[in-house]
Design goal:
disordered C terminus, 32% helix, eight-stranded parallel barrel, TIM Barrel, alpha/beta, two-stranded antiparallel ribbon, single chain, 313 residues
Length: 313
C-alpha cells in the first residue's frame, strides 16, 4: 500500500496517524496548530473528523462546531501537504463521504460506523482505507473480511473505551486475527503502541491535543499532549531502527583492553593431511580439580547439549 510518497507494509517504517479529532474546538487556527504539532513530532499523517451531531449522538446533543470542518478542507489539506503530512479525515455519514471525496489522501472508518451501508462507497474507492474494529467481534470480522473484494484495506484493532485501561488493550488480537495489521490506541500512554509495533502492526493511530487545550469531545486522557506525542513517535522510530536493519551482522570493535576469545568455524571433516597426522586416540584434557572435587557442580547435561548442538566440533 502507498499513500502519496509513503509505502506501508512489512519491511517499511511504521505509518503513524496523528489523530486531532475534534480538539480544534471549532477554531480553524487551532486546527492549523494541531497540524504543525503533528508535523514537528514526525507523524506521517494528520487526521480530523467530519460529522454532524445527528450522526453520532442520540438527540444530537453536542455542538456542531466540533465536527463541521467542511469549509476548512481545502485550507487544511494544503497546509498538510506543505509540511509533508498526508491528509486523512474520518467521515461519519454518506454525506461526509461526498464532501470529502476530492480532498483526502486516504480514508479512515471509525469503529461505530464500520458496518454502515454507506461505507461501501469508501470501499469502492481505490485510495487506501483504514477500518477500526472496536465494535466488531472476531466472528463478524472474519465473515466481513471474507466478502471484501477491494484492495488497499488495513483493518485496525482498537478498544472503544476512552481511555482504555492497559490491561484491556487486547493486543493478542493482532496475532490471533492475521489480517489485522493496524492499531488505534485509546490508552492514556503509549506502551501499548510500542508493543503493537513490535508485534507487527504496520499502522499506528493515536489521539493528541494542544498544550493549552480548550474543551472538546476528544479532550480526554487518551489524547496525548504535544511533548508525549513527540516521545511516542521518537520511541517508535527507535524501534524501527532496531527492527528493520537487514545487513549482515558484523561484530563491533571491542572496548579498549577487552580480551576477545575468538570462535573459529567448526569443520565436519578433516583434510587428507590432517587425517594422516591425526593421533589414533585424541588426547584428553585434564578437568579442572575444582569441578572434580565438587559433587554439586555437575555440568554433564550442559556439555551434552553443547556437543549435540555442535556437530563436527
Amino acid at each position: 500500500m502507498r499513500i502519496r510518497n509513503t509505502d506501508i507494509g512489512p519491511g517499511h517504517p511504521v505509518y503513524i496517524i496523528a489523530e486531532a479529532g475534534s480538539n480544534h474546538a471549532g477554531r480553524l487556527d487551532l486546527a492549523h496548530e494541531l497540524l504543525d504539532i503533528a508535523s514537528r513530532a514526525g507523524a506521517n499523517a494528520i487526521k480530523y473528523q467530519l460529522w454532524e451531531p445527528r450522526d453520532i449522538i442520540v438527540g444530537g446533543l453536542v455542538d456542531h462546531k466540533f465536527g463541521d470542518i467542511k469549509n476548512w478542507l481545502a485550507d487544511l489539506r494544503k497546509h498538510a501537504h506543505d509540511v509533508d503530512l498526508d491528509f486523512i479525515v474520518t467521515p461519519f455519514s454518506g454525506r461526509a463521504v461526498v464532501d470529502l471525496w476530492e480532498y483526502v489522501d486516504a480514508w479512515k472508518i471509525a469503529s461505530f460506523e464500520a458496518e454502515c451501508d454507506w461505507v461501501k462507497m469508501v470501499l469502492a474507492d481505490e485510495r487506501p482505507k483504514f477500518i477500526s474494529l472496536g465494535q466488531t467481534d472476531d466472528a463478524t470480522w472474519k465473515r466481513y473480511y471474507a466478502t471484501l473484494t477491494c484492495k488497499n484495506v488495513i483493518p485496525c484493532h482498537c478498544v472503544s473505551k476512552y481511555p482504555t485501561p492497559f490491561e484491556e488493550a487486547g493486543l493478542s488480537r493482532l496475532h490471533r486475527m492475521g489480517p489485522i495489521r493496524g492499531y488505534s490506541s485509546h490508552t492514556s500512554g503509549w506502551s501499548d503502541v510500542l508493543a503493537a509495533r513490535a508485534m507487527g502492526a504496520l499502522v499506528i493511530e493515536k489521539h493528541f491535543r494542544l498544550a493549552q487545550q480548550p474543551d472538546a469531545p476528544d479532550n480526554l486522557d487518551h489524547s496525548l499532549p504535544p511533548h508525549h506525542l513527540n516521545m511516542m513517535i521518537r520511541d517508535l522510530r527507535e524501534i524501527d531502527a532496531a527492527m528493520l536493519y537487514r545487513g549482515e551482522f558484523i561484530p563491533s570493535e571491542p572496548p579498549a583492553g577487552r580480551i576477545v576469545h575468538g570462535v573459529k568455524p567448526c569443520s565436519t571433516s578433516l583434510s587428507s593431511e590432517q587425517e594422516s597426522t591425526a593421533p589414533a586416540t585424541p588426547p584428553t584434557s585434564p578437568v579442572p580439580p575444582t569441578l572434580l572435587d565438587s559433587p554439586s557442580e555437575d555440568f554433564s547435561g550442559e556439555m551434552n547439549m553443547l556437543l549435540e548442538g555442535s556437530p563436527g566440533c
